[in-house]
UniProtKB/TrEMBL annotation:
Pfam families assigned to the protein according to its UniProt record, in alphabetical order: CBM_14
GO molecular function: chitin binding
Entry protein name: Uncharacterized protein LOC117567178
Biological source species: Drosophila albomicans
Annotated region described as Disordered, given as residue ranges: 100-146
Designated gene of the protein: LOC117567178
SUPFAM superfamilies in the record: Invertebrate chitin-binding proteins
Keywords carried by this UniProt record: Signal
UniProt feature, compositional bias: Low complexity: 114-146
Length: 207
């Protein structure tokens, strides 16, 4: 009876070990010809990248308004429209395939989007401002960062700013230059302590 229990335990252990060994991490064939601990551009999306590190490899996406620059191996601001150009090429090719009727529908939607964007960006009419009041005594102060945008860096004001949407990213202002930085894997930017901490401990910024 005792031997039977030992065999049952051994059989369960072997089954569990077999299940664990059959579960594998994501495999990225793009990582086959690159050194370990390397970031590469995802071929199908200029805003995405792959971190090549054997079984710990993963794919992630850069924050909005950025693309992955393979030369510097980091997310960079798309001021030159590098990523936008590739999406425009895809849109143009798609438009050429569409029929005349579908093309008119797409143009109407685009015109509506432009009209909505223009209306949203026009400055509001001047109105009488309400009288100033004293601020409340206890306020949860969060760092200044434009809503949905990136912070402005002055040549004299070096510092760090949290990303408004992605906890693992933050902005660094140094000598008037703005850089977007990513914390190590499974870490997030703690805006109160201005440093990367394990994601479970990080006090993430949110709008």
């Amino acid at each position: 009876m005792c031997q039977l229990q030992e065999y049952a335990k051994l059989l369960c252990l072997l089954l569990v070990a077999g299940i664990v060994n059959t579960q594998q991490a994501d495999e990225f064939p793009q990582c086959n010809n690159v050194a370990m601990d390397t970031f590469i551009v995802a071929i199908d999306d200029c805003t995405s990248y792959i971190y090549c590190n054997g079984e710990n490899s993963f794919r992630d996406t850069c924050p909005e308004q950025t693309y992955f620059d393979g030369n510097s191996q980091e997310c960079a601001f798309d001021d030159a429209g590098i990523c936008l150009l590739s999406t425009e090429t895809t849109t143009i090719e798609t438009t050429n395939i569409l029929g005349e009727e579908e093309r008119k529908e797409v143009e109407e939607v685009e015109q509506e989007e432009v009209a909505t964007t223009t209306a949203a960006t026009e400055p509001p009419a001047a109105t009488e401002s309400p009288p100033a009041t004293a601020p409340p005594a206890a306020v949860d102060v969060k760092p200044a960062s434009p809503a949905g945008g990136r912070p402005h860096c002055d040549a004299i004001g070096d510092g760090y700013h949290p990303h408004p949407d992605r906890c693992e990213y933050y902005y660094s202002c140094l000598g008037g230059y703005l850089t977007i930085v990513r914390c190590p894997f499974k870490f997030g930017w703690d805006y109160a302590e201005e440093r990367c901490k394990p994601m479970a401990e990080a006090q993430c910024f949110s709008l």
